[in-house]
């Protein structure tokens, strides 16, 4: 079955450590996104990529980095520069010409200890 | 600029009650409109969409009509169930080439048996 997978589901990090969240899709979608969701709030865009080897900053990119070396994969690194990283992170993908219908992974909950 | 405003939650209803969750928008151009649903601890799923004025999106008993004259896309369901308890997000996109969705803050729905 086609879909988007995110791993791990839960992640714990010590302050000062970088951590990488995985996002893989087998939907053959061109565009991929990373969102951050805080309790009781909507989604905020961190980074997005429309094509392999290209990506753009979203509204809250500071303290995060991404890569898009393969169409299927769009990993997100939360760096030590991100001052408040505890949140729920959602990855999504979308095919061109779909009027922005995005498909979401199950999310990763990151907790900084 | 483009924006989406949703009614604040939580919205608490009894089973079999009628549901309305309000969503209004501000947009340049001709947006497509979406409702997504997020069940506890999960990613988002597309619930329904409408791509032009007067279109009605429907799925799983939920409906929403794209009203250009009132810039609204209210979500309705005639008889809610406990399993409908979730957070509902209204979103818009402007133009097929625009890869970003503009999100509302989400409305938490609680259905009591």
List the keywords.
heterodimer, A: 113 residues, mainly beta, globular, B: 113 residues, 6-stranded mixed beta sheet, 4-stranded antiparallel beta sheet
What does this structure look like?
The complex is a heterodimer of chains A (113) and B (113). Chain A is mostly beta strands and 113 residues long. Chain A is 0% helix and 50% strand. The termini of chain A are far apart. In chain A, strands 2, 4, 5, 6, 9, 10 and 11 form a seven-stranded mixed β-sheet that branches. Chain B is mostly beta strands and 113 residues long. In chain B, 0% of the residues lie in helices and 51% in strands. In chain B, strands 2, 5, 6, 10, 11 and 12 form a six-stranded mixed β-sheet that branches. Classes of the chains: A mainly beta (113), B mainly beta (113).
In short:
Chain A is an all-beta fold and 113 residues long.
The helix/strand class of chain B is mainly beta
Q: Can you give the helix content of chain B as a percent range?
A: under 10%
Oligomer: heterodimer
Low-confidence stretches of chain A: none
Tell me the Rg of chain A in angstroms. Answer: 13 Å
- Order of SSEs of chain A: EEEEEEEEEEE
End-to-end Cα distance of chain B: 41 Å
* Computed CA radius of gyration of chain B, to the nearest angstrom: 14 Å
Q: Can you count the beta strands of chain B? A: 12
Q: What fraction of the residues of chain A are assigned to beta strands by DSSP?
A: over 45%
Please summarize the sheet with the most strands of chain B: 6 strands, mixed
Strand residue percentage of chain B: over 45%
What about the largest sheet of chain A?
7 strands, mixed
Helicity level of chain A, as a percent range? under 10%
Note the total helix count of chain A. 0
Coarse shape of chain A: globular
């Amino acid at each position: 079955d086609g879909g988007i997978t995110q791993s791990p589901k839960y992640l714990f990090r010590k302050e000062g450590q970088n951590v990488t969240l995985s996002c893989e899709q087998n939907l053959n979608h061109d565009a991929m996104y990373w969102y951050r969701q805080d309790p009781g709030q909507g989604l905020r865009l961190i980074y997005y990529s429309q094509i392999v080897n290209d990506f753009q900053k979203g509204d809250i990119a500071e303290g995060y980095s991404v890569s898009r070396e393969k169409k299927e994969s769009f990993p997100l690194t939360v760096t030590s520069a991100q001052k408040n990283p505890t949140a729920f992170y959602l990855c999504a993908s979308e095919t061109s010409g779909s009027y922005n219908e995005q498909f979401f992974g199950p999310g990763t909950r990151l907790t900084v200890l | 600029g483009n924006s989406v405003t949703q009614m604040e939650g939580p919205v608490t209803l009894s089973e079999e009650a009628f549901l309305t969750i309000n969503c209004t928008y501000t947009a340049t151009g001709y947006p497509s409109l979406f409702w997504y649903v997020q069940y506890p601890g999960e990613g988002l799923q597309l619930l329904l969409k409408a791509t032009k004025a007067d279109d009605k999106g429907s799925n799983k008993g939920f409906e929403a009509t794209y009203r250009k004259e009132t810039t609204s896309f209210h979500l309705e369901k005639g008889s809610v169930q406990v399993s409908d308890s979730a957070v509902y997000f209204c979103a818009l996109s402007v133009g097929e080439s625009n890869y970003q969705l503009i999100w509302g803050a989400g409305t938490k729905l609680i259905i009591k048996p």
